[in-house]
Amino acid sequence: MFVDNDVKLGFSDVLIRPKRSNLKSRSQVDLVRTFKFLHSKREWTGVPVISANMDTTGTFEVAEVLAKHAMLTAVHKHYSPVQWDEFLEGKDEVIYSHIMVSTGSSEADFEKLTTIMKNHPKLHFICIDVANGYAESFVEFVRRVRDSFEDKTIIAGNVVTGEMVEELLLAGADVVKVGIGPGSVCTTRVKAGVGYPQLSAVIECADAAHGLGGRIISDGGCTCPGDIAKAFGGGADFVMLGGMLAGHDESGGQIVERNGQQFKLFYGMSSTTAMDKHSGGVASYRASEGKTVEVPYRGPIEETVRDILGGVRSACTYVGAASLKELTKRTTFIRVQEQENRIFG
Ligand code: 5GP
User: What is the pLDDT of residues 283-338, one digit of tens each?
Assistant: First the structure.
């Protein structure tokens, strides 16, 4: 039995050490990045924060707001081709470069993806998302999507180790999505005992991806803007958020009222709630690997977006990074045993 004794770190195990800086204000920080993707050869410019492809956060309504901030939305895979047609009708170019079409890896998923992409050739991004990106059949699927959509930017995941990042990039992915188990409504670590602390996964996977000219998304586990800054500091090119964007007007999920306070339902995509909704219940051979929670209703998403972008800007200012691109180079993590003062809860 081999035990890897290297300590693996999550966001809450570290802080970013401040560095001398000549920036006067966070307004001087540029969060926009430009990437040229490995296989699609497309260039993309924007703020690399993505709303997760969950049916509560990857909605068309969220996409419209986030696109105004040059951010991305991985639109969930449960919209029909007709709903895509209706949403995109009359939309300008900006929206096309800020949305991703999500898909699973079944035959039916492939057909639906093909229909949507054919109907809307201006769409750039395809996000192939499965809970476990380690299956050989998944790698084959990525290869098939690459062969069918040569000039589209393909995201594939999720994995947490460098060798699998390399395999997915070689199979045709431009960007690999990293994260197993860190999600706010994920129970994989409890149900299956499988996972990898997210910050270490990001550091190791970024190294592997960048060596081949690929990119990574840190997916899951961010609880506050500081965690997003740590993910970027660790080398993530993009950061994907679920729970932090839940509970807003634009998010999906039913509103519930309790003792005069409003909540919105938020649930994992493999929770019993999601499976009842989309697949007619949890199949007998599998366990639900997601929670269902009630998030206090938070109003329009706009304010949360500002808070997030403000936090990342602030991190950049503290280490003297005039642009997000410089944040990784200027980040030194310190391992800590306390994060914040909790006297007031
Ligand atoms: P969060 O930002 O809420 O911490 O994490 C969002 C991520 O959690 C999603 O992008 C996705 O990768 C993951 N996720 C969403 N639903 C589920 C689920 O039901 N089970 C598991 N294991 N992960 C989930």
Answer: 777 677 899 999 999 999 999 999 999 999 999 999 999 999 999 999 999 999 99
Buried-state track 10-49, b at ≥16 Cβ within 10 A, e below 16: bbbbbbbeeeeeebeebeebebebebebbbbeeebebbbb
pLDDT at 315: 97
Which residues, in sequence order, are CB contacts of 16 under 8 Å at separation 6+?
229, 230, 233, 315, 318, 319, 331, 332, 333, 334
Q: What ipTM was predicted for this assembly? A: 0.98
pTM: 0.97
Catalytic residue among 186, 241, 275, 319: 186
Q: What is the CATH number of domain 31-251+302-335?
A: 3.20.20.70
The tokens describing 2, both together, are 């081999």
Ligand 1, pocket residues at CB < 6 Å:
52, 54, 131, 158, 179, 183-186, 188, 219-222, 240-244, 268-271, 289-290
**Non-local CB neighbours of 133 within 8 Å, separated by 6+ positions:** 156, 157, 158, 159, 164, 168, 176, 177
Locate the domains of the chain by residue range.
31-251+302-335
| CA 171 – CA 173 distance, rounded (Å) | 6
